[in-house]
Amino acid sequence: MASVLRWMCTTENSEGIPAADIDDSTIVRSPTTASAHYGLPVSLQTSPDAKSSRAELSSMRTPHNRRRGRASQSLLVVARWLGNAEGMFALRMVIMTIALSIPAVLSSSAGFYYRENGLWAVIMAQLTLLPYTADVVYGIIVRVTGTIVGGVVGMAAWYIGSGSGPGNPYGEAAAMALVILPFMWWRVFSSLPLMPAGVMMGITAYLVVIYSWIDMHNEPYGNPGKGYEIFWRRLTLVLIGLSGTFVTNFFPKPPSASRHYRHQLGKSLIGIRDQYALFVSNWEAPAQDLHAVAEEESLKAIGDLLSISGPVKLTVFEFSSSNFDTHALGRVCQLCMLIQQSVTQLLIYTTRLSDAQRQSVILSTEKTKENMVVEVMAVLTIVQQALKTDDPLPAMLPTPLFTREVVFTRRRIQKVLDNSEFNKDYTMDNEGLRKYVVLLNALLQMFAALDELVLVVKSAVGETSNIAILEV
Questions:
Q1: Angle subtended by helix axes 431-461 and 326-352, to nearest 10
Q2: Of 39, 101, 203, 456, which has the highest C-beta tally within 10 A?
Q3: What are phi and psi of 470, to 5 degrees?
Q4: Is residue 35 very low, low, confident or very high in pLDDT (cuts 50, 70, 90)?
Q5: In Å, how far from its chain's centre is CA 86?
């Protein structure tokens, strides 16, 4: 039975089917059993020079699914545009802005709206509303804290510089000279997530002092007051705007940042899977553009992962029903970057090894055998689906990959070392040996990271379909 299965796996490899046509170069693979059965073209052949990794990767990412009609495609595009996170964010912004601006156009409330500077509430609401709930809650906390601290500092500066009088310009200048120093330091040296707090502190402190001075020396409309009166009015406007943001964010459904990051991590695993497939298909005869494609894909993937590695920490402020907490998402992001780095090394060093060196690696690892490729693809796909759907993983998976690969590689390397040709070609001073070690390390590092990724995901979503194995 094992021989039959091995024969089936080694005879059903897809070649001869046109994969893609980019820059007048077509990648062709030899026909599979199913292709020959259904009469697909067999005689298409191209020279090795026409092979393009970019075209092959594009073919891998084309689903070749059922084609929809033009009308259904248009409706689907419009529905996705309105229903995605960006479309819902724009709709929330419009509704919230109109709702908070209605008192400004009503004759019964226009005077009150202008006198109390109701526009500040609209501005605060617009600045705080963001596409995902975690960012919104964090923005509310930061802005409320910054407003309170800035108001207290502004009141202290006003009362120190003016006392109980109308205000002394020299005293206010001396007080504000000290106040501006920490705010300027915060603005220049603070991290990006904490910058809104510094901005709110500086704005509130200066508004308290400036409006207090205007009220004492001019006769503005509405007489805003001085010191504490300015502070509580400013705080009230901020709270009104933030309340509008908080209410708007939860209708019709609060957008989950955790779900968004899980989907992003799942997409990164899809990209890793495609690059690993590109590595396997180009191992024996690498394309000329494989090195450039590997670098481009790696830079894009690492850039996408780095862009969410920081915001993932803000999911601690989100009330999410997902099984993935902040620690699990952060760990998955780190492991995805590690796996991406390993796959990039495999692709790059594929182009640096000679044909004889690649054959030696195949003999020592057999990394391109069908069973190993299937196991890696299966693990990547199952973990990606678990990230996307939040469903538990099956209890039985082809893991740990690292342990089995180490045991297998030790046996194979011992056989290869017995080969006199290998001992003659690979010495400690030989560059080929160093490339071989780097490639082997990248492979083992990828397997170890995949095993840890499975454990992290299982600890978050759990496992199901447990199998009781009875020992006889």
A1: 160
A2: 456
A3: -90, 125
A4: very low
A5: 16
Residue 407 has pLDDT above 90, yes or no: no
CA distances from 185 to 196, 198, 202, 232, 366 (A): 13, 9, 11, 26, 58
With 0-12 / 13-18 / 19 or more C-beta atoms within 10 angstroms meaning exposed / middle / buried, residue 193 is middle
Give the C-alpha separation, 175 to 314, whole Å: 36
| Closest alpha carbon to 356 in 418, 293, 416, 316 | 416
Averaged pLDDT, 2-16 = 37
Hey, how many other C-beta atoms are within 10 angstroms of the C-beta on 422? Answer: 18
Domain positions in the chain are 1-44, 86-249, 256-464
pTM, two decimals, is: 0.78
169 SS3 class: helix
Q: Can you give the pLDDT at residue 405? A: 73
CB 138 within 8 A of CB 314: yes
Contact 128, 139 (CB under 8 A): yes
CB 270 within 8 A of CB 343: no
Q: Does position 429 have pLDDT exceeding 70, yes or no?
A: no
Closest to 365 (Cα-Cα) out of 401, 409, 406: 409
Q: How sure is the predictor about 356, in pLDDT bands with cuts at 50, 70 and 90?
A: confident
- Six-digit token string for 333: 């992001």
Higher-pLDDT residue of 292 and 219 is 292
Which fold, 256-464?
Methane Monooxygenase Hydroxylase; Chain G, domain 1 (1.20.58)
Closest CA to 262 of 318, 340, 322: 322
Q: How far is CA 145 from CA 35, 106, 203, 234, in A?
A: 66, 33, 13, 13
Q: Which amino acid is at 4?
A: V
